[in-house]
Amino acid sequence: MKIAHTKFVLLCSALLSVLLALPAAAQVLLEEVIVTAQKREESLQDVGIAITSFSGEQMRALGVEESFDVARFSPGVHISGNLAGQNTQFSIRGVTQNDFNDIIESPNAVYLDEGYIAVAQAHTFAVFDIDRVEILKGPQGTLFGRNATGGLVHYISRKPNFEEVEGYADGTIGVFDSPTDATSYRFEAAVSGPFSDKAAGRVAVYYSKHDGYLENIYPFAEFGAGTFGGGTGNSPGAGAGADMGDDDTKAIRGMLQFQPSDRTEITFSANYAESEVATGPYQSKATIGVFDGVNGVGELINVIDVTDPNETRTGIAADGSDFGGDADNDGLFGIQDPGGDLLGRFGAGGDFFGYIDPDGDGWTTSGDFAFDDNGSTETTGLNFRVEHTLANDMLFTSVTDWKDYEKLLFIDVDSAPVNQLANYAGVDADSFTQEFRLTGSTDTSNWVIGFYYLNIDSNSDNGLKGPANSLPALLDGLFPFPQGVDIGVEATLKTDSYSLFGQYEWNLSDTVTLITGLRVIQEEKDYRMRQGFYFNEGNFSVNVGDPYINIRRDFLGLGEYYEDDRSDTLWAGKLQLNWEPSDDLLLYAGLNRGVKAASYNAPIPGGLGFPDSFLPYDEEILHSLEAGFKKTLAGGRTRIQFDAFYYDYSDYQAFLFTGVSGVVVNADADNYGFEFQVQSSPADGWDIVFGLSWMDATVKDVPLRINSPLPSRDVDPTYAPEFQASGLVRYGWNALGGEMAVSVDGSYSDEYFYNLRNFDADKFDSYFLLNLRWSWLSGDGRWEVALVGHNLTDEAAGIQGFDLATLCGCNEVSYQPPRWYGFNVRINF
């Protein structure tokens, strides 16, 4: 490894010396960025908020293709999520919500053209024909309102051109450096132009396709495949064992803009996207639970990786003996329930069934429940915006937005060649938002007032699928037909939210501004949920019909549904001072109060049951103290941002995963840290971007499980690396009648937990990702070609993990894609 690093340093030094001798070209990354973080257009350096923002051209230079790619270059921003990157969410300053049920909303709001994306699992989308992105860190509840306690990410589409017809076409072909040698294709194009002097339009299309990069060599396994080594005849169905990590996405966005007068602008846009993917690309690693003697019974206190190739225990009791596992997920372990659970692994050193991943965290695995086109997502959106300038230059804005989101995705619970269980997650959700606001200014002030309405109608289906001949059918005897069972939860959540908001900025002097803001919210929720056993109608459908066993009614003697409603009045606020001692320096300090509405859990049925009292959870409240500065240096060639913060959370909504399911619990938390970022063009042709963040976050008094007899503990939040850093160096020079450019960027993340219990095995390692782009742009700006490399260090950078040590003797984990090489061609017209 040291030799490889030395060669890399020498290569970079040689490249740098060559670049310094070449004739420089213009900068790309230091163009001025205009943001709308305060609901009006301002220069990034003039806004007293911790913001990372990139224009569309900057995102191209940075290699941003998916919505979450911007996290690499945003200090304090990481990714979290579930279903192995098929749905990825943002984690901002350690604030995240990784509950995999789709009725939840994220504490980090994501917007497209001011339209709120209500379903957290819809935060993953292709970035194409985007004008800019704004990442706002810290509570943004006053002006953006919806659940933005951690912050928000706002993507703004490119607008139609009223002057001339213009557009582009951009195509990329590449290959993943994995055993499958999966080829990837990506194409996007847009055209825009005027219909008249008062109307213009723009349409953009996108297509992406690649085969699975995670090679599946099923039925390979040390002890065979199928149920307990029963052979391939017991696989979950025809087509099992497909390669995973593929993509097949199509999207289109259209926009019409009208300017009937100098004072009025009307914009209508529509978008549609659909994706088909294989089963989620998870891999398995062998783990073992560690138990402590409590009341003579035993309590799970840790999970560790199986590192001893001779390990045969399924659980480690307090005296070191085999405590057993919970393969039927009834909450009883082998020593307590020897008739239904395991005592001893089928094969030493592997999971309960003897499986050992063939190459660890490499790109080869063996999994039975893996099918082509097993999952799908479909999104549709409409957005209608009116801006009208009134007397005294007051601006009235109306934003109407509707979205529909449908999803059904699958993963293999054990991620191994054993026909045990699969997990599914489906949703059909609609959201509607309406915002009216009025902005204005005087000689000494700027202000905005508004009204916001949100309606979300969400229906989710989550659960566990036991295919034919699977473990549940063999162990429990509950299922009268051999085709297997869906153990599912159906949840319906209807939300109506109304809010009034305002922000007032008063110039106390020529250099000092006082900012105050307030949002008052009325939140109404109606919830309905049932859990049951459903006949399995196949590996591509879930929860068909009514359950033939209703868990609440038939097992617990309760009503068929859990039903509840609630009405809450909430508020968020802001108090801040800005000081501009000079035109190139802004200092700011402030107090923000953020709030995220209360809601309900919809846990997957499992042996570790959750009482009804744990289904609702309370709103979370965040008080944030922040201070920072923004400085412009060297005649505008360098921009610096620094921000320090302290968070005090009451009832932070933390997701506690145990067994095969989990619930959101309220727990107090605190977090403090800082962020630093710089963008510079120190000399002609050179662009440099650098950022780093550090934080210390704690979630307090978290139980090991619901109703655990052991004391609660203080833990780290999930997906919250303590330290992150990223940087990019780009140099452009005149060559071949145009501009040649080389850019190298890297991002580092410290290690982080993916389970709130912070067990030893539930942690992803630190990683460093390296990307390279070598491009040539013709002198007239029409043609561009580029060679691109992503993840050149071929790091297994963790996305999502599940601790299933007591169920299968394994944790299932997923990683960002492997090393990739590509060739890009773009034509502008």
Automatic annotation (TrEMBL):
Membrane topology value: Multi-pass membrane protein
Keywords carried by this UniProt record: Cell outer membrane, Ion transport, Iron, Iron transport, Membrane, Receptor, Signal, TonB box, Transmembrane, Transmembrane beta strand, Transport
One GO BP: iron ion transport
Principal location: membrane
Keyword Signal: yes
Entry similarity comment: Belongs to the TonB-dependent receptor family.
The protein's name in its UniProt record: TonB-dependent receptor
Pfam families, sorted: Plug (PF07715), TonB_dep_Rec_b-barrel (PF00593)
GO cellular component terms listed in the entry, alphabetical order: cell outer membrane
Signal peptide interval: 1-26
Source organism: Elongatibacter sediminis
Subcellular location: Cell outer membrane
Span of domain TonB-dependent receptor plug: 44-151
InterPro entries noted in UniProt: Beta-barrel_TonB, Beta-barrel_TonB_sf, Plug_dom, TonB-dep_rcpt-like, TonB_rcpt_CS
Entry annotated with the keyword Endoplasmic reticulum: no
UniProt xrefs under PANTHER family: FERRICHROME IRON RECEPTOR-RELATED, TONB-DEPENDENT OUTER MEMBRANE RECEPTOR
Residue ranges occupied by any TonB-dependent receptor-like beta-barrel domain in the UniProt entry: 330-792
